[in-house]
Write a structure and sequence with these properties.
The complex is a heterodimer of chains A (283) and B (299). Chain A is mainly alpha-helical and 283 residues long. Chain A is built from twelve helices and no strands.
Chain lengths: 283, 299
């Protein structure tokens, strides 16, 4: 009896200690981001000196990086470009992936596994191995330095993962409901709207969000194929690195602004993303 | 008449296949066409600088590949970079998931703080670490090193590979943690309860029930991690610019084609070799995936 009580007390003590460890590790992991945020509110001279947390915060760096200079890529232009490219590619991904996931889950076609393999295997082709032909094709088709080329490439980049995740979410839809809708004469679109979307909606949202994160953060294609016009946020951020003079505080402010949209989106959707990613393979 | 009377499950296969086609065709065009073009270029001596007419030279670009020490070095860097970052991220991610899979004050907040690195733009992550953590002038890490009584170390130039791997592990640990958390939370609670009633110790439950259950999630984490980490480019570009010891295969191929070399024929041959190597690794990884799907059908 008494040993039981000791056991419970001991467990509580261990739990408390592990909780404390979690806090410590959490702080450690977040520290570089915390430091970036702190630096973004400093004067350049303070940021480029021995690390300190005693400083009078200023918003001047944010004013600096959002101010527009003629001839240079501005904040609002970069964000506008990124938002357009990311939203367009994510919408196209969903338009292509939702019917595909339907054909692989609700009424799976015969070789559904091979098809799923094919989609995932394309993710193993290194981007750089295809950048040269893509660059040449884009030049031939007059797509170099347009937003359209990025929309197409981000769609291709995210489509396999989206098909994969959506398929698992669609498998949660009871087949009887889909059959009933079909007997009632609902088209594919009708079935999607009336039966599948209400059930798999959260999963679709999580999938879309992951596509947004990867597209928003993409730098390689953006800088290779789009160096002149229609530049996106990652290019704007790196534009704040300068070889002359101090830039840490300014770069930090730009980095905070660039990261904020997807960080907030990721925070909001973290639980669903966990489920979607894991179920993609396991359920 | 019989067409309308038939049950939906007997409907024509083409109607079932049709929804798949747009995505499939899009993916085939966007991935296979560039590959075939690369294959063709790799058999030519095409270069831009100095501009020369494109001539068909057969497999000449391939013959010297393995003697090219820089190529072999880059392949080795790729292997080390991918393997170490995937394994370390998986290890830390699993430990963190075990740490967070319990009720404690601020659980949600801590999980939120830890996943943030995964959401940060790779170029931003590379720049924060190299300018604000590693830097020998104002970096926090160097400041700590100096407080401990050692001289300043320019981490990125002295340990380029380790520095890049540190940032990669920092960004991908949260991703692995998310997957492992999903694994931990999907454990059937009745089985765990039964084991506990039967007097199993915590360690025994972990080793005999939790760990086997987590295996598939670990495999999934390794698969997804490898897919993305084999392609690392942004971190290298902003941290070392491909300096000694940090050029992986993607960076190597890039440098020889549109990244300044403009040796389109030779670079294409390199990229074909990279693709073939990736396919070998992918086949291996897909076998893992196949086991995952196998489990689904059994379930």
């Amino acid at each position: 009896m008494s040993s039981e009580v000791v056991g419970v007390g001991e467990r509580r003590w261990v739990n408390g200690l592990l909780g404390l460890a979690a806090w410590f590790v959490g702080a450690l992991y977040f520290f570089p981001i915390f430091w970036m945020i702190a630096n973004s509110f400093k004067e350049e001279a303070v940021a480029n000196a021995d690390p300190t947390l005693s400083f009078s915060p200023t918003l001047d760096r944010y004013r600096d990086v959002t101010g527009e200079t003629v001839g240079l890529l501005g904040f609002s232009e970069a964000f506008g470009n990124s938002i357009r490219v990311v939203l367009a590619s994510t919408v196209i991904v969903l338009v292509l992936a939702i019917p595909a996931a339907y054909a692989l889950s609700i009424y799976p076609i015969k070789k559904w596994r091979d098809v799923l393999f094919f989609f995932i295997s394309t993710k193993f082709l290194p981007l750089v191995a295809s950048i040269l032909p893509i660059w040449i094709l884009a030049r031939e088709l007059d797509l170099l330095n347009t937003q359209r080329v990025l929309v197409i490439l981000y769609t291709a980049m995210n489509l396999p993962l989206a098909v994969w995740m959506l398929r698992s979410f669609f498998q949660e839809v009871p087949k009887e409901l889909v059959e009933a809708a079909e007997i009632d004469g609902a088209s594919l679109f009708g079935q999607l709207r009336s039966v599948i979307l209400p059930i798999a909606g959260p999963g679709i949202a999580a999938t879309a969000l992951l596509c947004v994160i990867f597209a928003w953060n993409e730098y390689f294609f953006a800088v290779q194929l789009n160096a002149a016009d229609a530049q996106t946020v990652p290019i704007w951020v790196t534009g704040n690195v300068s070889t002359r003079g101090n830039f840490i505080a300014k770069l930090s402010a730009a980095s905070v602004l660039a990261s904020l949209p997807v960080v907030i989106a990721g925070w909001v959707a973290q639980k669903r993303m966990i489920r979607g990613l894991a179920m993609g393979a396991i359920k | 008449m019989s067409e309308t009377a038939a049950l939906p499950s007997h409907a024509t296969p083409w109607r079932r296949r049709l929804p798949l086609l747009p995505a499939l065709i899009f993916t085939i065009v966007l991935t296979q066409v560039p590959f075939l073009m690369s294959l063709f270029y790799s058999l030519t001596n095409w270069r831009i600088n100095p501009p020369t007419p494109r001539e068909f030279i057969g497999v000449e670009n391939y013959t010297g590949l393995l003697d090219n020490q820089q190529f072999v070095d880059a392949a080795w860097v790729s292997v080390k970079m991918t393997a170490s970052s995937v394994l370390l991220a998986l290890l830390f991610g699993t430990l963190l998931a075990l740490l967070l899979d319990r009720k404690f004050l601020g659980q949600g907040l801590i999980r939120t703080l830890i996943i943030t690195p995964f959401l940060i733009m790779p170029v931003v992550a590379g720049l924060i670490w190299s300018n604000q953590m590693f830097s020998s002038s104002f970096g926090v890490l160097n400041w700590l090193v100096e407080q401990a009584g050692f001289g300043p170390t320019e981490f990125v130039s002295r340990y380029p590979l380790a520095s890049i791997v540190t940032v990669l592990v920092w960004q991908w640990t949260p991703f692995m943690m998310l997957i492992m958390l999903a694994g931990l939370q999907s454990q059937p609670s009745d089985v765990l309860e039964a084991a506990r009633v039967d007097g199993a110790t915590s360690w025994g439950i972990f080793r005999q029930l939790t760990l086997p259950h987590l295996r598939r999630y670990m495999e999934l984490g390794m698969l997804l991690g490898t897919i993305y980490l084999i392609q690392v480019f942004d971190h290298i570009l902003v941290m070392t610019g491909g300096g000694p010891g940090s050029t992986n295969l993607p960076f190597f191929v890039y440098r020889r084609s549109i990244g300044g070399g403009w040796l389109f024929g030779l670079a294409s041959a390199f990229s074909i070799v990279v693709v073939v190597a990736s396919i070998v690794i992918a086949t291996f990884a897909l076998r893992v995936l196949s086991n995952l799907l196998e489990g689904e059908e059994a379930a």
